[in-house]
Structure of FlgD/Vpr Ig-like domain-containing protein:
Amino acid sequence: MLRSRFLALAAFGPILLAVISCSAAHAVAPQVTVNAPNGGEVLTGGDVASVSYTATDDGTITEVRVYYRDDDLAPWTEVARKLSNAGIYAWHVQNTPTPNARVRVWVRDNEGLTADDESDATFVIQQTPGGTVPTTLRDFELPGTQPFGISEPLERVYICMICHAGYDETVEPGHNFMGSMMAHSARDPLFYACLAIAEQDAPSSGDFCIRCHSPGGWMDGRSNPTDASALTLADRDGVACDHCHSMADPVYKPGVSPVEDLPLLQELVQIPTIYGEGQYVVDDALLRRGPFQAPEAQHPWVESPFHREGEICGTCHNVSNPAFERVSGAEYVPGPLDEAPTSMDPSVLLPIERTFSEWGASEYATSGVYAPEFAGNKPDGIVSTCQDCHMHAVEGRGCSSEFAPIRPDLPLHDMTGGNTFVPYLVADLYPDEVEWNELADGIDRARYMLRHAALLDLGVTAVADSFQAEVTITNNTGHKLPTGYPEGRRMWIHLVALDDQDQVLYESGAYDSTSATLGNDPEATVYEAKMGISRSLAPAIGLAPGVSFHFVLNDSLYKDNRIPPRGFTNAAYDDFGGKPVDPTQPGERYPDGAYWDVADYPLPAGTKRVIASVYYQTMSREYAEFLRDENETNDAGQVLYDAWNQFGRSCPELMASDTVDVVPAGVDPAGPVVQSNSAVSGLQAGPNPFRSEVALGLGLNRPAEVRLEVYDVLGRACRSIVQGRLAAGAHRLVWDGQDETGHDAGSGIFWLRLQVDDTVETRRVVRLH
């Protein structure tokens, strides 16, 4: 920076340079002396200590910086910059216990001359007291750009909005970004309530959380104190525009990565080797990066393939607990305390969130999946990267300039997930910082995502004198359904059987909105992940074993029956700690290749109509109460609970539903009717579920008249395929998914009704999008 400024001055000619040289020749360097801590003191991590110094100059001291280190051989760690010459600085002492600490004060004057001084002798930093486990800041030190690793703070979001908002709300980056939870990750009261418990349980763990929820605050040194109390209005910009658009791929790819990335990576003390845990690399230069060439941009710009790939999202959407390491299978044990983890690989550390890994081991990440409902303006309708669904392509300009190109593949900057609840809380708690219309549009987009994330198919069959309902939930996302942070987040099936007077005969998965309580009947199907404390760890930390919301202490996965995506295999998911677990179903919860789940429900004899629905909820009552009741340090849990109570208690969102009238005409719901003299054997339908066509394989014991009919779930005839008289032997009958008029029959449940002479058999099949 100084070099570029002197070069600019040189352009004014030798006279100006002569004046500068003359002035510099008579300048006297400033003087600075550290007064305290100056040796022998005993400080405690987390406390506030006064760094006292004396700085003088014949001109003006324009900047003061403060550093510390925990050993004479260790590099200096910056703790504050751009201070005025007040002679004293209130230092929140880092939780890095050591007997060999020193501080250093650096000053610069108006002539650009500098001086520094350090403690004459070492002093002691004691570990932060309290906590269920004695963690320190070292346990959460990770590779990548570090605090004060960039010379200037990230640009405020409102600066970017000058050009990138206010011209077309449907496609512009500004309006849509400000309706996303990315923009409000540091305004989210759920984050602060959870952070408070984490800090109580494991001191300094908050630093790990802040680095992704407020990267601007973290890089500007305000993650210390680690309880987020130092975060400012600017830090509440969350995952700001300048953060993502200054990020570089930590894995340099010659010929692909911008050449500007290489020197940036070479300057790092530790380069991240994997995508995750908030290990971002941020450019110190005022150089923005993005997925396109943009020669017309009004700021320095470079095209970055990294911004087109899911790996950039993986930076913060793979989250591990670095304090626990895998020893075998699903067993994790505490790693060495007061030191950084030896490996950041997701196959080693305890999983908390694995959205990126789930996607990486799916069909979406390899060949892509046809999903036009998510693909936006992509002409082929194939979605593959995270951005294809969560920043779908639209047509428009990326900025307000009339000279900006109209792109057919402009990424919509909404980064939408499934959170329809917290935006209400953000609007209430920060009315002067947000615009409701932006949040409201974000809620609508989240509801769209939820209503296309799952396909629900309901089938009802006769069983003796009663019925059985079969609900199939198909995952249409590129990760588990649901995914992300597991605590309090869930999806469940609600099923109701009615009689001919529409009176409830049977109900499963009932939700009481008055008490915000989900029923726990024997057939209830709830898709969720539940972590907890193992029997081996419990005595060491003084807590009971079992399911727990203390996420920084949990070392075990007690349940994870969330539905995997297309391309799932148990081996791949086991590798990164994401293999599904269900205590009610020993063995593998899902077979390889499954991206759906089937739940069965016994129904009474008087059933005339069945309604099945699947719901999603951001935050359960149990979790809201836990965060309130367990908080012993601040009011973050109470603030969250009060807002949760005021704004509908995280009202469940309907994702999909289906209704079946019993019994549909034209179809025998009892399934196969096999007679002793039947001409047919070995009847099989597959693939099931299917997309383009399904085949019915059968064997004829003798020549017979064969007729295949297709009915939809309501018993309406879709197709009649008359085969005529077939010879004895094996045959394969195919339905191509079209109705009698040659049009696509759509998706859902269908019945294949096969008539062989006087024998009738039926098979239920499911057609996907």
